[in-house]
Amino acid sequence: MQPFITHSGIVAPLDRANVDTDLIIPKQFLKSVKRSGFGVNLFDQLRYLDEGRPDMDHGNRPVNSDFVLNQKPYDKASILLTRENFGCGSSREHAVWALLDFGFRVLIAPSFADIFAGNCLKNGILAVALPAETIEELFLGIREAPGYSLEADLPHQRLTTSDGRRILFDIDFYRKNCLLGGLDDIALTLEKAPLIDDYEQRAKKHYPWLFGDIA
Amino acid sequence: MRPRTLYDKIWHSHIVEEREDGTALLYIDRHLLHEVTSPQAFEGLRLAGRKIRRPGACLATYDHNVPTLAAEREGGAAAISDPLSRQQVEVLENNCRQNTITDFAMEDRRQGIVHIVGPEQGFTQPGMTIVCGDSHTSTHGALAALAQGIGTSEVEHVLASQCLIQKKAKNMRIEVGSTPAPGVFAKDIILYIIGRIGTAGATGHTVEFAGDAIRRLSMEGRMTVCNMAIEAGARAGLIAVDDTTVDYLKGRPLAPRGRQWEMAEQYWRSLISDDEASFDTTVHIDAGEIEPQVTWGTSPQMVAGIGGRTPSLERCADDSERRSLRRALAYMGLEENQAMTDIRLDRIFIGSCTNARIEDLRQAAAMLKGRKISSSLKQALVVPGSGLVRDQAVSEGLDTIFIDAGFEWRQPGCSMCLAMNADRLGEKEHCASTSNRNFEGRQGFGGRTHLVSPAMAAAAAVAGRFVDIRQRQWS
Ligand code: SF4
Predict the structure, then answer these.
(1) Which of A98, B110, B213, B279 could form a disulfide with A42 if both were Cys (CB 3.0 to 4.6 A apart)?
(2) Global confidence as pTM
(3) Alpha helices in B60-140 (DSSP H)
């Protein structure tokens, strides 16, 4: 996973609450057995006017010019500003892969769904939760200055707007470290194998019925 | 010892290591797999040269992608006509074979929707930690198991280490008191709760459902409630162990036996919240106030009683609420202040991990006996949750009731719940669906989903629109 230290980019406004992962990446694209290539179908139902199918040439589809990611300069955005409960619904990590593949590294919203936030973390995307009033101000800022950009600085837990305004954000210690290190957490957990062995030995005594094989 | 909630108890008994950063390495007892969210995890392990720590703790089933027509099912995976679906099924079959993971192949009578199969087999047991790359894993909490949906990276992590890194969630208790009216089912209770607290109402919490109305539910009804805990934002739902739980488990193929059963039962009975345990949040619901529910919008919180109407734009608290309401009504092709009973339907779907167990099929069939579905419908589908549910229904003659009424009687799978296979809505079609998500496009591009109980879906099939099943002609 790519570490996250700082990132600057254009902020695309998606003014919509409760964006679910079905909307982020519709199910017909989940048939892929890979982790990449989902970017062209990010927000497929909002981005294109026709029904998307995995076997299409997406470059030739009719696009919805009203949708923000089809408008310049937001087609090059790498920061997404949106409303509460972003990423609710299905646990599909494909939603995060699609955002990443499109080029997003930072998401800003009043709140994120739990499973989705965990998936962001595993893929080096910084999900910044801010109070609703601050989010509102950012939306206003974009309306006044289209093409608005931000710098996200994780070590300092700070967003800096292009006019120099600073917004501090909270992030828990664990998440911050994961993102900064870009660590392979499976490798780290596997270093704990002796502890896991010990746990299993203890648990086998207390709950022996949990250790038969499923067959 | 400090009084503890049920969640606290299961959490603490699975800690491998507590860390200074507030997370824990949590041991996972059981892992369910399906074809859509697992291929990248197996691939990741292969690339890193890692082994699966406990293949014997895993169970795989094929459900999301599989066709539900008998003709396409008979030839096994090779006969699936959609090449991408076939590939996903075959990839999981290979992964199971190479890693000695037990799977229920498409032709196996035990095959079905992952969250129906787990409890049915006794794979799901109280006090366990269970994960699956699927958000409706919360279903298994009905048996007092800490069951959570995870992403594919976490699937890989659990396969490799049998552990998950997690921060403990907060405790929430939703107390559902008194008795629901006849015609009001578990599905109505959970939809009503979501309408009350919202789709983010339980974010960051593990929810314990309690109270008389929950106690009186059958095990299957409890699964319906916990299934949709995720639609209220909770990763996990829980219901304490009682006789209903223990009786349900007795004799299931994977339940413990003999001396181990006795040990297990004694332990299971301790899986209740202590009297004095404290919850970060408590919500009280009066089941007596609940009407049969119908969702009218594009989020499960956009729900009303059958006697209700879509909201009026004037009453919105602010602009952003008004915008979201207007967008939802426009997508659904409905007006403000429109009566639920005025919604005309094109298709009916009875199925999904929320409502495709035997009791669900019985409740639907009870509405259909001696009746015919409306000629205005394009299609009415029943998709049992597993091969065993299907067999049981056939042995009770329910299939005949459905078929005589005009329903199609299909093979088990997720089907039109997410429309990854051929079962889907056309643009602008309204569907009465017993599933759990009414998101835009969920059941097909431009499709319009209304979530209801199986009995409500069946009655709506007869009438061609939503009706109040508390009225005498339906009881
Ligand atoms: S039935 Fe629907 S909600 Fe349940 S596991 Fe299948 S797709 Fe997911």
Answers:
(1) A98
(2) 0.97
(3) 70-73, 83-99, 114-121
